[in-house]
Amino acid sequence: MKVGNRRSTDITVTLVLAALLLLPVYGFAQTVESDTQGSRDLSRLQTIDELYLESQISVQILKAQIMSDSLEHQLLGLAAMEDQLAAGTLDPHNREAFDALTHVLEQGVFNVARSGNQVPYDYNPIVRHKAARIMGLVGTEEARKKLVQTVELDPDASVRTQALYALADIGEDPDGSVTFAIARMLRSENLRQTPNDNAVFAALVAVERINGNADSTMHSMVVDVLVDVAVGRGFNRLIRSKALQVLSLM
Protein backbone atom coordinates (compact mmCIF):
# COMPACT_ATOMS: atom_id res chain seq x y z
CA MET A 1 0.00 0.00 0.00
CA LYS A 2 2.82 2.40 0.85
CA VAL A 3 4.48 1.70 -2.49
CA GLY A 4 1.25 2.34 -4.33
CA ASN A 5 0.72 5.68 -2.55
CA ARG A 6 4.26 6.75 -3.33
CA ARG A 7 3.80 5.90 -7.04
CA SER A 8 0.54 7.85 -7.09
CA THR A 9 2.21 10.82 -5.43
CA ASP A 10 5.13 10.69 -7.87
CA ILE A 11 2.78 10.67 -10.86
CA THR A 12 0.82 13.61 -9.45
CA VAL A 13 3.99 15.63 -8.87
CA THR A 14 5.22 14.84 -12.37
CA LEU A 15 1.97 15.96 -13.95
CA VAL A 16 1.94 19.20 -11.95
CA LEU A 17 5.54 19.97 -12.95
CA ALA A 18 4.77 19.25 -16.59
CA ALA A 19 1.77 21.57 -16.48
CA LEU A 20 3.86 24.34 -14.90
CA LEU A 21 6.53 23.92 -17.54
CA LEU A 22 4.01 24.05 -20.37
CA LEU A 23 2.23 27.18 -19.15
CA PRO A 24 4.97 29.64 -20.25
CA VAL A 25 5.29 27.83 -23.59
CA TYR A 26 1.58 28.01 -24.15
CA GLY A 27 1.52 31.69 -23.19
CA PHE A 28 4.41 32.41 -25.53
CA ALA A 29 2.70 30.55 -28.35
CA GLN A 30 -0.46 32.57 -27.75
CA THR A 31 1.55 35.81 -27.91
CA VAL A 32 3.33 34.83 -31.11
CA GLU A 33 0.05 33.82 -32.72
CA SER A 34 -1.60 37.13 -31.89
CA ASP A 35 1.43 39.14 -33.02
CA THR A 36 1.65 37.43 -36.38
CA GLN A 37 -2.02 37.28 -37.34
CA GLY A 38 -2.43 37.30 -41.13
CA SER A 39 1.04 35.81 -41.68
CA ARG A 40 1.01 32.87 -39.28
CA ASP A 41 2.46 29.47 -39.93
CA LEU A 42 5.22 30.83 -42.19
CA SER A 43 6.78 27.41 -42.38
CA ARG A 44 3.90 26.29 -44.60
CA LEU A 45 4.26 29.12 -47.12
CA GLN A 46 5.23 27.77 -50.53
CA THR A 47 8.34 28.91 -52.34
CA ILE A 48 8.18 30.30 -55.86
CA ASP A 49 9.74 27.08 -57.16
CA GLU A 50 7.07 24.99 -55.45
CA LEU A 51 4.27 27.14 -56.83
CA TYR A 52 5.79 26.93 -60.32
CA LEU A 53 6.08 23.16 -60.04
CA GLU A 54 2.45 22.86 -58.93
CA SER A 55 1.28 25.09 -61.78
CA GLN A 56 3.23 23.03 -64.30
CA ILE A 57 1.72 19.81 -62.97
CA SER A 58 -1.74 21.38 -63.17
CA VAL A 59 -1.16 22.41 -66.80
CA GLN A 60 0.11 18.93 -67.68
CA ILE A 61 -3.06 17.40 -66.23
CA LEU A 62 -5.22 19.87 -68.19
CA LYS A 63 -3.28 19.13 -71.36
CA ALA A 64 -3.71 15.37 -70.92
CA GLN A 65 -7.46 15.79 -70.41
CA ILE A 66 -7.96 18.18 -73.31
CA MET A 67 -5.96 16.09 -75.76
CA SER A 68 -7.61 12.79 -74.82
CA ASP A 69 -10.01 10.89 -77.06
CA SER A 70 -12.79 11.22 -74.49
CA LEU A 71 -15.36 13.96 -75.07
CA GLU A 72 -16.14 14.02 -71.35
CA HIS A 73 -12.48 14.47 -70.40
CA GLN A 74 -11.99 17.14 -73.04
CA LEU A 75 -14.95 19.16 -71.80
CA LEU A 76 -13.83 18.83 -68.18
CA GLY A 77 -10.32 19.96 -69.06
CA LEU A 78 -11.59 22.90 -71.10
CA ALA A 79 -13.94 23.97 -68.29
CA ALA A 80 -11.05 23.88 -65.80
CA MET A 81 -8.84 25.89 -68.16
CA GLU A 82 -11.57 28.48 -68.65
CA ASP A 83 -12.03 28.84 -64.89
CA GLN A 84 -8.29 29.21 -64.29
CA LEU A 85 -7.90 31.84 -67.02
CA ALA A 86 -10.88 33.78 -65.69
CA ALA A 87 -9.47 33.62 -62.15
CA GLY A 88 -6.00 34.66 -63.28
CA THR A 89 -4.34 31.48 -61.99
CA LEU A 90 -3.28 30.33 -65.46
CA ASP A 91 -0.89 32.43 -67.52
CA PRO A 92 -2.45 33.18 -70.94
CA HIS A 93 1.04 32.84 -72.44
CA ASN A 94 1.55 29.30 -71.12
CA ARG A 95 2.78 27.37 -74.15
CA GLU A 96 1.56 23.92 -73.10
CA ALA A 97 -1.94 25.20 -72.38
CA PHE A 98 -2.06 27.08 -75.68
CA ASP A 99 -0.88 24.04 -77.65
CA ALA A 100 -3.58 21.87 -76.06
CA LEU A 101 -6.22 24.48 -76.84
CA THR A 102 -5.02 24.77 -80.43
CA HIS A 103 -5.12 21.00 -80.80
CA VAL A 104 -8.84 20.77 -80.00
CA LEU A 105 -9.71 23.96 -81.89
CA GLU A 106 -8.24 22.36 -85.02
CA GLN A 107 -9.37 18.77 -84.50
CA GLY A 108 -11.50 17.57 -87.37
CA VAL A 109 -10.37 20.61 -89.40
CA PHE A 110 -6.60 20.07 -89.59
CA ASN A 111 -5.90 17.42 -86.96
CA VAL A 112 -7.72 14.43 -88.39
CA ALA A 113 -6.90 10.95 -87.07
CA ARG A 114 -7.30 8.28 -89.72
CA SER A 115 -7.17 4.51 -89.84
CA GLY A 116 -6.73 3.71 -93.52
CA ASN A 117 -9.50 5.61 -95.27
CA GLN A 118 -11.64 5.75 -92.14
CA VAL A 119 -11.92 8.57 -89.59
CA PRO A 120 -12.36 6.64 -86.34
CA TYR A 121 -12.81 9.58 -84.02
CA ASP A 122 -16.07 11.50 -83.73
CA TYR A 123 -15.00 15.16 -83.88
CA ASN A 124 -17.65 16.96 -81.87
CA PRO A 125 -18.00 20.67 -82.75
CA ILE A 126 -19.00 21.44 -79.15
CA VAL A 127 -15.34 20.98 -78.18
CA ARG A 128 -14.15 23.42 -80.86
CA HIS A 129 -16.94 25.81 -79.85
CA LYS A 130 -15.71 25.85 -76.25
CA ALA A 131 -12.07 26.09 -77.33
CA ALA A 132 -12.89 29.13 -79.46
CA ARG A 133 -14.50 30.85 -76.49
CA ILE A 134 -11.45 30.15 -74.33
CA MET A 135 -9.15 31.54 -77.02
CA GLY A 136 -10.95 34.82 -76.45
CA LEU A 137 -9.86 34.68 -72.79
CA VAL A 138 -6.28 33.93 -73.82
CA GLY A 139 -6.37 37.07 -75.96
CA THR A 140 -2.81 36.91 -77.29
CA GLU A 141 -1.70 37.62 -80.85
CA GLU A 142 -1.41 33.88 -81.48
CA ALA A 143 -4.93 33.35 -80.12
CA ARG A 144 -6.23 36.05 -82.45
CA LYS A 145 -4.63 34.36 -85.46
CA LYS A 146 -6.10 30.98 -84.53
CA LEU A 147 -9.55 32.52 -84.22
CA VAL A 148 -9.24 34.17 -87.63
CA GLN A 149 -8.27 30.79 -89.04
CA THR A 150 -11.37 29.28 -87.41
CA VAL A 151 -13.62 31.95 -88.91
CA GLU A 152 -12.21 31.22 -92.34
CA LEU A 153 -12.00 27.42 -92.28
CA ASP A 154 -14.13 25.70 -89.65
CA PRO A 155 -16.99 23.80 -91.31
CA ASP A 156 -19.40 24.33 -88.41
CA ALA A 157 -21.35 27.61 -88.34
CA SER A 158 -21.73 27.61 -84.55
CA VAL A 159 -17.96 27.33 -84.09
CA ARG A 160 -17.33 30.14 -86.56
CA THR A 161 -19.90 32.27 -84.73
CA GLN A 162 -18.23 31.65 -81.38
CA ALA A 163 -14.83 32.50 -82.88
CA LEU A 164 -16.26 35.85 -84.02
CA TYR A 165 -17.57 36.60 -80.53
CA ALA A 166 -14.15 35.67 -79.13
CA LEU A 167 -12.53 38.14 -81.55
CA ALA A 168 -15.02 40.72 -80.31
CA ASP A 169 -13.93 39.98 -76.73
CA ILE A 170 -10.29 40.53 -77.69
CA GLY A 171 -11.28 43.68 -79.59
CA GLU A 172 -7.91 44.22 -81.27
CA ASP A 173 -6.73 44.30 -84.86
CA PRO A 174 -3.38 46.09 -85.09
CA ASP A 175 -2.71 45.18 -88.74
CA GLY A 176 -6.21 44.91 -90.26
CA SER A 177 -6.00 41.14 -90.74
CA VAL A 178 -8.94 40.41 -88.43
CA THR A 179 -11.36 42.85 -90.05
CA PHE A 180 -10.21 41.66 -93.48
CA ALA A 181 -11.18 38.08 -92.58
CA ILE A 182 -14.50 39.30 -91.14
CA ALA A 183 -15.23 41.36 -94.27
CA ARG A 184 -14.59 38.34 -96.48
CA MET A 185 -16.86 36.23 -94.29
CA LEU A 186 -19.65 38.85 -94.46
CA ARG A 187 -19.32 39.09 -98.23
CA SER A 188 -19.55 35.32 -98.50
CA GLU A 189 -22.69 35.27 -96.33
CA ASN A 190 -24.21 38.04 -98.40
CA LEU A 191 -23.89 35.86 -101.49
CA ARG A 192 -25.67 32.93 -99.88
CA GLN A 193 -29.31 32.35 -100.61
CA THR A 194 -29.87 31.77 -96.89
CA PRO A 195 -27.16 33.53 -94.87
CA ASN A 196 -26.40 32.49 -91.30
CA ASP A 197 -27.89 35.33 -89.25
CA ASN A 198 -26.11 34.31 -86.03
CA ALA A 199 -22.68 34.38 -87.65
CA VAL A 200 -23.41 37.68 -89.40
CA PHE A 201 -24.58 39.34 -86.18
CA ALA A 202 -21.47 38.08 -84.35
CA ALA A 203 -19.31 39.50 -87.15
CA LEU A 204 -20.99 42.90 -86.79
CA VAL A 205 -20.40 42.86 -83.03
CA ALA A 206 -16.73 42.01 -83.62
CA VAL A 207 -16.32 44.90 -86.09
CA GLU A 208 -18.03 47.25 -83.64
CA ARG A 209 -15.72 46.26 -80.75
CA ILE A 210 -12.57 46.41 -82.86
CA ASN A 211 -13.58 49.80 -84.27
CA GLY A 212 -13.89 51.07 -80.70
CA ASN A 213 -10.22 50.30 -80.05
CA ALA A 214 -8.05 53.26 -81.02
CA ASP A 215 -5.06 51.00 -81.66
CA SER A 216 -6.90 48.86 -84.21
CA THR A 217 -6.65 49.13 -87.99
CA MET A 218 -9.88 48.75 -89.91
CA HIS A 219 -9.47 47.14 -93.32
CA SER A 220 -10.71 49.31 -96.20
CA MET A 221 -13.03 46.56 -97.41
CA VAL A 222 -15.15 46.69 -94.24
CA VAL A 223 -17.24 49.78 -94.97
CA ASP A 224 -18.37 48.53 -98.40
CA VAL A 225 -19.34 45.16 -96.96
CA LEU A 226 -21.28 46.77 -94.12
CA VAL A 227 -23.24 48.82 -96.64
CA ASP A 228 -24.04 45.62 -98.54
CA VAL A 229 -25.35 44.05 -95.33
CA ALA A 230 -27.35 47.14 -94.39
CA VAL A 231 -29.24 47.14 -97.69
CA GLY A 232 -29.12 43.41 -98.39
CA ARG A 233 -32.50 41.79 -98.89
CA GLY A 234 -31.27 38.46 -97.58
CA PHE A 235 -30.82 39.78 -94.03
CA ASN A 236 -33.49 40.35 -91.44
CA ARG A 237 -34.32 43.73 -89.96
CA LEU A 238 -32.20 43.21 -86.83
CA ILE A 239 -29.10 42.46 -88.92
CA ARG A 240 -29.63 45.45 -91.21
CA SER A 241 -30.19 47.76 -88.23
CA LYS A 242 -27.02 46.51 -86.54
CA ALA A 243 -25.02 47.09 -89.74
CA LEU A 244 -26.31 50.68 -89.92
CA GLN A 245 -25.45 51.20 -86.25
CA VAL A 246 -21.89 50.00 -86.77
CA LEU A 247 -21.53 52.18 -89.88
CA SER A 248 -22.67 55.24 -87.90
CA LEU A 249 -19.82 54.69 -85.43
CA MET A 250 -17.12 54.56 -88.08
Which regions are unreliable across 5 or more consecutive residues at pLDDT < 50?
Answer: 1-43, 48-53
Helicity level:
over 70%
- Give the distance, in angstroms, between the N- and C-terminal Cα atoms: 105 Å
- The helix-strand sequence is HHHHHHHHHHH
Count the DSSP helices.
Answer: 11
Q: What integer is the average pLDDT? A: 79
Number of strands: 0
Q: Structural class per helix/strand content? A: mainly alpha
> Can you summarize the main beta sheet?
none
Strand content: under 5%
- Report the radius of gyration as a whole number of Å: 30 Å
Descriptors for this entry?
mainly alpha; 250 residues; single chain; 11 helices
Please specify the SSE layout and strand pairing:
Layout: H1 2-35, H2 48-66, H3 71-87, H4 95-106, H5 125-138, H6 141-153, H7 157-170, H8 177-191, H9 197-211, H10 221-231, H11 237-248
Helix pairs in contact: 2-3, 2-4, 3-5, 4-5, 5-6, 5-7, 6-7, 6-8, 7-9, 8-9, 8-10, 9-11, 10-11
